[in-house]
Amino acid sequence: MPAPAWLTATPIAHRGFHDQNKMVWENTIPAFERAIEAGFAIECDVRLSKDGVPFVFHDDDLKRLCGRDGEIETLSAEEIDTITVGDSGAVIPRFSDVLKTCKGIVPLVVELKRGAEQDSRFVPTVAAAVRGYEGPLALMSFDAEIMRDLTREKLPFPLGLTALGDHEEDFTRHRDALAAGLDFISYYYEHLDNDFIAGLRKDGIAIITWTVRDPDARAISDRYGDQMTFEGFDPRQ
């Protein structure tokens, strides 16, 4: 299906409208509340805990954001609930709490990240988490297999591929992934100027871009894409 207009209507705050982890840290409830207040769409990342609970966290490990060793996928939900992000005082949020925070006020664009040992349960768990959500929501991943499996869940949300690359073998791989029934692509802004992206736009496939951090990047995104995923500045200014 064509991606809905809301997907490209509003700038998308990368991991929420944080301030480069000075006071408001990425992928925390305060960052999402700040995006909602500003009227921006929200991008966030979802991983599963050891016991299969979806949490919002980007990195493979906890070191950069939490200053400790370990991975989300090796810890129980009860353990993760106690871990704060940086010196913010905010804990790593459960995905269910992010959905309650957004509650359909602004669009939510969710990037899915699967642990190596979570193949069989990942997609059903994510599908169960979002089924019944009443609001603009999109799901995407670098992992084409995740997205192919999600098309079989018959969810009422647009599905997309997160991608990069500027060689023909990249484009062939991405075309194959999109052919599974995906609705949009989220593409690295430095790789937008090519016939592959131009062809997708001609065919009506929505192009959102990542990650825009300065005016030059924004100009590229505006020229070749339909909407940007941004961080580090306020697009209203």
* End-to-end Cα distance: 34 Å
SSE string: HEHEEHHHEHEHEHEHEHE
What is the CATH first-level class name? Alpha Beta
Major sheet strand order: 1-2-4-5-6-7-8-9
SS summary, helix count? 10
- Kindly state the percentage of residues in helix: 25-40%
Shape: globular
Label the structural class.
Answer: alpha/beta
Please state roughly what percent of the residues sit in beta strands, choosing from under 5%, 5-15%, 15-25%, 25-35%, 35-45% or over 45%. 15-25%
Q: Rounded to an integer, what's the Rg over CA atoms?
A: 17 Å
> Biggest sheet, in brief?
8 strands, parallel, barrel
Based on DSSP secondary structure assignment, what is the total number of beta strands? Answer: 9
**Per CATH, what is the topology?**
TIM Barrel
Give the domain tally: 1
CATH architecture: Alpha-Beta Barrel
Low confidence ranges: none
Key traits:
237 residues, alpha/beta, eight-stranded parallel β-barrel, globular
Please, could you describe this protein's structure?
With 237 residues, this protein is of the alpha/beta class. The protein has one domain: Alpha-Beta Barrel (TIM Barrel), CATH 3.20.20.190. The protein has ten helices and nine strands. It has an eight-stranded parallel beta barrel with strand order 1-2-4-5-6-7-8-9, surrounded by six helices. The radius of gyration is 17 Å and the shape is globular.
SSE layout:
Elements: H1 6-9, E1 12-14, H2 29-38, E2 41-48, E3 54-56, H3 63-66, H4 77-80, H5 95-102, E4 108-112, H6 119-130, E5 137-141, H7 144-151, E6 159-163, H8 168-178, E7 184-188, H9 195-202, E8 206-212, H10 215-224, E9 227-230
Parallel strand pairs: 1-2, 1-9, 2-4, 4-5, 5-6, 6-7, 7-8, 8-9
Antiparallel strand pairs: 2-3
Helix pairs in contact: 2-5
